Amino acid sequence: MEKEKQRVALGSVIAAAFLTAAKLVIGLLTGSLGILSQAADSGLDLGAATITYFAVRVSDRPADQDHLYGHGKAESLSALIQAGLLLITCGWIIYEAVERLFFKTVAVQATLYAFVVMGISIIISVNRPVVLRRTAKKYGSQALEAGALNFSSDVLSSAVVILGLIMVRLGLPLADSLAALVVATLVVVASVRLGKRSADVLLDRAPREMVELVAAEVRAVDGVIDCPRVRLRRSGNRSFVDLNVNIDRAVGLERAHDVALEIERRICVKIPHADVMVHTEPTEGDEQLVDRIKVMAGRTPDILDVHNILAHEIEGKIYLDLHLTVTPLLTLGEAHKIADSLEETVRSEMENIAMVNTHIESNLHFLASGEDITSSSGSMVNLVKNVAREEAALKDCHEVTVRKVNDHLSLTLHCLFDENLVISEVHEASTRIEDRVKGAIPDVDAVLVHVEPS
């Protein structure tokens, strides 16, 4: 990429140098202000092309410790300098044209050489903008785009000078000065446009249509509630986009990360070479009661989980029962304070909550040593199967596993149920089986019923 941009910029330097020399020589020989104005314009094109060449080389350097956003704005600075040089030239051309129109007479010789030089100028000036504009679009280079604008204005201004020379040969000597004024006007317009665009980039002005495009793309991502702020700045061929995005607080950290990645992907499709930073803000969305309670519980680090949430509505008031899993090393007093705090939060943030009751439990976060004693516990396995089969909804019980963990017995049994039963009925049946097994074998510390469709 860097070599192609530099090669195109160097080609513009060579072209501008040739045109400047040719126009200057012919302008001095013929006394044509139109050609001299073109020579001055091409001379500034030469300076601008040289600046562009070095700006392209600088802008392609990667970011470093002192330039964290890279060196891309060197291209915008180059374009702004080009605009300033063009305006200075226009001032001299306009001054000299007014002098010749009203205060002094200069003989202009519309020779064949003058026409040949201006014709060559048009041929070269037609080709260079095509190459520059194509490369600028390919790599998003503002410096090359400025060079294309300069050469494009040369085409029309050269045509105007040729027209002025023709009028001189027809006996209208003032036409040369008028042509120079037209050239100057065209260059002023091009310079102002170029300068404004360059200044906008240097001052971090974000195009309104681009900001609206980014906001629309973000809001179209599934999981995004709103996009309240978009900040966008350009540096060379790169766009830096900073976003604040409201995401449903119940989706979880991993899902929020996936949403942020999708936002980045969409923006990079719409804006090539974009560097996107997404700041996600948890926001209350269309949450169910269980989701809201889990969000509230998630604010306390010592609460590991909330489950078995049961809600009852009595006379317009809601009564909640829930199981609260906390860190195992908490004392009862500490765990009770956490439970009280959660109950108060639920009552204050949710309407019509009359009462909240919590069942506190712990969850051990380490691997316990144990052994599988199923092969030596045949009688216990048979007893478990028989006890389980007392449940009317059960189709079958198989794969009973007996483990001894820290001198405690732990049982796992696979139970088959009708696949058309609703899960609440299956859960109630599996709970009854657990209770029956514990009642039949008092030494059992834990029973897990794995349910399967028959």
Alpha carbon gyration radius = 40 Å
Helix content: 55-70%
Q: Looking across the biggest beta sheet, what order are the strands in?
A: 7-8-9-10
Which ranges are low-confidence, i.e. pLDDT below 50, for 5 or more consecutive residues? none
The shape is rod-shaped
Q: What's the count of strands?
A: 10
SSE order, one letter for each helix or strand? HHHHHHHEEHEHEEHEEHEEHE
How many angstroms does the end-to-end distance come to?
64 Å
β-sheet strand percentage = 15-25%
The largest sheet, given as strand count, sense and whether it forms a barrel, is: 4 strands, mixed
Tally the helices.
12
Please identify the structural class as seen in this structure: alpha/beta
Average pLDDT reading: 76
Structure description:
Helices cover 57% and strands 22% of the residues. The chain contains twelve helices and ten strands. The strands form three sheets. Strands 7-8-9-10 form a four-stranded mixed beta sheet, with helices on one face. It has a three-stranded mixed beta sheet with strand order 1-2-3. A three-stranded mixed beta sheet has the order 4-5-6, covered by helices on one side. Strand 5, helix 10 (332-349) and strand 6 form a beta-alpha-beta unit.
